[in-house]
Amino acid sequence: MSTIVTETIEVHMRLINFNYWRC
């Protein structure tokens, strides 16, 4: 379960970075 949480956080961080760079 911890692995799923870690992967979810990583994906969210990538999405945040992607949106940040788009702006």
Automatic annotation (TrEMBL):
It comes from the Eukaryota. This is Uncharacterized protein. It comes from Rhizophora mucronata.
